[in-house]
Specification:
The complex is a heterotrimer. In chain A, the strands form 4 sheets. In chain A, strands 4-10-9-8-7-5-6 form a 7-stranded mixed sheet, sandwiched between helices. Chain A is of the alpha/beta class. The longest helix of chain A is centred in the N-terminal third of the chain and has 26 residues. Chain B is mainly α. Helices cover 61% and strands 0% of the residues of chain B. The two termini of chain B are 23 Å apart. By secondary structure, chain C is mainly alpha-helical. Chain C contains 2 helices and no strands. The longest helix of chain C is centred in the middle third of the chain and has 25 residues. Chain C is elongated, with a radius of gyration of 13 Å. Classes of the chains: A alpha/beta, B mainly alpha, C mainly alpha. Chains in contact: A-B, A-C, B-C. The interface between A and B is medium-sized, with 25 and 19 residues.
């Protein structure tokens, strides 16, 4: 699955990415559904306003009404009138590791999802298609557990201090050296939570329109000017770059000091992979910098799991800031930033995470170290390699089967994130419920986290999924797909 | 407002509203047309020009909270295709209503006032004006 | 089931569903009647 053709121009491998258009009838019926729910939402708000119905959600108390409102009433109109109705499909408590199968706590609601009660029963061995566990290292047995337990006994659970003070342990430095070696960059530093390593310190930021909220927040935190280009659209990016170079800063038209392009390697809601060869070509052409968020791709793509840079056969030195997380592929937490030595030294001194946030918990660091060594093959086994291979096969197999069933699937052929399109708001709730009835746990996503006519189920595959597990899941998906009539695709695989 | 199918849904919605009004036995055709025009403009005024903010949380630190839907449309850029479409559609409805009410003066005044109530807030000069 | 899912009355509470279906049936009845008279 990882052969790389050593000819051709920019891309050294086929780049298959598809976003089938929403069928017009489905789009219209989706708006009808949202219209009905909005009208009933206004009706319910009217009943609550006149105390005909008890208001469950938090509002300002009578005595507080003269003060500045604490709760934006209209802003949670959707939450209280749409999301509440289907929120039993969200935030389900699990009571096991988020592995290939997961144990879920059963809960019921007697007031239409305003409150839940646990029945005390556990729904055991539910197939887990919702967790980010690409290489299956979220497990409570094997060498990872032993080493994490040993470090827990030796270092304790937390360092309770920042990296610049007492919280800098030898484990952190070991992980940093390992990350730098794994990525093939000069230096790496690990941050304790992903929000902080996003905070860029730049001047003009060109950000993909579907970048993760943490990137958006980090970009805003830096106070830089931000311009947004269309998702994965290189013409739009080049036009912004050209305008930025030609017109410079607004009003003064002085040239920008630095231009930073911020992209994600795999978009976790779209399942798409960034067109990295083209982005790097544009970056070199216009002499700007590149920040690559490999949160979902590190460990998940590339012949040896080194992420999208290796997937396209590019040089890591071409990416100025490599960012990623230990959460999704290594079963850990937190993340890292990799790059040139002076950049990392600067971040170590100035970054919010280094100054304010407590450093990573040592056992978690150990989990990431052991998992990363396993991926690199430094644990003397080929487990890591097998898992990467397994994930790649699972991805291709699952995508192909779903397409053959007639579902509309978004994204890249090689992306382990598989958005399965649902469209109508009621089908979001129904899909989650029907799949759980069949012992398959899926994550469903709707407006406003996605465009209003692109609600979806986001399936995340794992190397821990065996072919049997995938076949069971596919059978259930096929059944639910027929029941809910969500096989909208008009593309048929040419035999 | 420029995502796929929303304009078609909007036109179908107006058509459905008119058919429902036409089906009410004691409404004559002129009354049905004037009601279609007035109800449509009332709904457009409420949803596009009266309600402020967003019905869901946005990551823009509350910037949109004081803007109407019309002002938030396309990030405030004027003369976009959506804006043109939603400016023209009440005018077309007004022409139809005037024609089918045979330019009766009462209906004409009612329809004109209703049309102005949704056209005036759409003027670019009134963007952000309170 | 498709009617419930597409019209979103699947997620409405029982009394809302009754209200919704009443309105729908009334409107459809009126439209059919008028169409019949008209044709």
């Amino acid at each position: 699955n990882h052969h790389i053709a050593h000819n051709g121009a920019l891309y050294k491998r086929p780049f298959n990415e598809a976003f089938e258009e929403t069928p017009m009838l489905v789009a219209v019926l989706t708006y009808v559904g949202y219209g009905v729910l909005t009208l009933f939402g206004y009706l319910r708000d009217f009943l609550r306003y006149w105390k005909i119905e008890t208001c469950h959600n938090t509002t300002d108390r009578e005595e507080q009404l003269d003060f500045v409102p604490l709760y934006q009433d209209f802003e949670n109109f959707y939450t209280r009138n749409l999301y509440m109705r289907i929120r039993d499909s969200w935030n389900r408590p699990i009571c096991s590791v988020p592995g290939a199968r997961v144990d879920m706590m059963e809960r019921v609601s007697h007031d239409y999802n305003w409150t839940f009660k646990y029945t005390g029963k556990v729904i055991k061995d539910v197939i887990n298609l919702g967790s980010y566990n690409y290489l299956g290292y979220a497990q409570n047995n094997g060498p990872l557990r032993e080493s994490a337990a040993k470090v827990l006994a030796q270092y304790g659970a937390g360092s309770c201090s920042t990296r610049q003070e007492m919280g800098n342990l030898d484990k952190h430095e070991e992980l940093e050296r390992l990350v730098a070696r794994f990525l093939g960059v000069d230096h790496g530093t690990d941050m304790c939570n992903c929000m902080d390593e996003q905070s860029e310190n730049g001047c003009l930021i060109l950000s993909d329109e579907l970048n993760h909220a943490s990137l958006v927040l980090g970009a805003r935190l830096s106070g830089a000017t931000i311009r947004v280009f269309k998702h994965n659209n290189m013409q739009s990016l080049e036009k912004l770059l050209k305008d930025a170079i030609v017109y410079g800063q607004p009003r003064t038209h002085r040239p920008w000091k630095k231009i930073l392009i911020v992209v994600e390697a795999i978009y976790s809601m779209e399942g798409s992979i960034v067109r990295l060869p083209e982005v790097i070509a544009l970056k070199k052409k216009y002499k700007s910098y590149l920040y690559l968020d490999e949160a979902h791709s590190i460990g998940a793509v590339g012949p040896s799991g080194r992420g999208v840079v290796e997937y396209f056969g590019l040089n890591p030195q071409d990416v100025d800031i490599m960012m990623g997380t230990f959460t999704k592929s290594f079963g850990g937490a937190g993340g890292y930033i990799g790059g040139k030595k002076e950049l990392i030294d600067y971040l170590r001194v100035h970054s919010h995470s280094a100054v304010y946030a407590t450093s990573l918990s040592p056992p978690v660091v150990e989990q990431s170290i052991t998992a990363m060594k396993s991926v690199m093959g430094e644990d003397g086994t080929t487990i890591g390699k097998q898992r990467i291979q397994q994930l790649s096969e699972n991805t291709k197999y699952f995508r192909r089967r779903l397409k053959k069933m007639g579902f509309i699937i978004y994204g890249n052929e090689d992306s382990p994130i598989i958005p399965l399109m649902l469209y109508m708001p009621a089908k979001i709730g129904a899909f989650g419920r029907e799949m759980l009835k069949r012992h398959v746990a899926v994550v469903v996503v709707g407006f406003p986290a996605t465009p209003i006519i692109e609600s979806r189920a986001r399936i995340c595959l794992s190397a821990a999924h065996t072919r049997e597990i995938l076949d069971i899941a596919l059978k259930e998906l096929d059944e639910v797909g027929d029941l809910l009539q969500i096989k909208y695709s008009r593309h048929r695989l040419v035999p | 407002m420029n995502s796929r199918g929303i304009w078609l849904s909007y036109v179908l919605g107006i058509g459905l509203l008119h058919i429902v009004l036409l089906s009410i036995p004691f409404f004559s055709v002129p009354v049905a047309w004037t009601l279609t025009n007035v109800i449509h403009n009332l709904g457009m005024y409420v949803f596009l020009h009266a309600v402020k903010g967003t019905p869901f949380e946005t990551p823009d630190q509350g910037k949109a909270r004081l803007l109407t839907h019309w002002e938030q449309l396309d990030y405030g850029v004027q003369f976009t295709s959506s804006r043109k479409f939603f400016t023209i559609s009440p005018i077309i409805l007004y022409f139809l209503a005037s024609f089918y009410t045979k330019y009766d003066s009462t209906h004409f005044i009612l329809n004109t006032a209703s049309l102005l109530s949704v056209l005036i807030p759409k003027l670019p000069q009134l963007h952000g004006v309170r | 089931y498709q009617y419930l899912l597409i019209s979103c009355s699947y997620v409405l509470e029982p009394w809302e569903q009754s209200m919704f279906n009443t309105v729908i049936i009334t409107v459809v009845g009126m439209v059919v009647y008028t169409a019949y008279v008209f044709i």
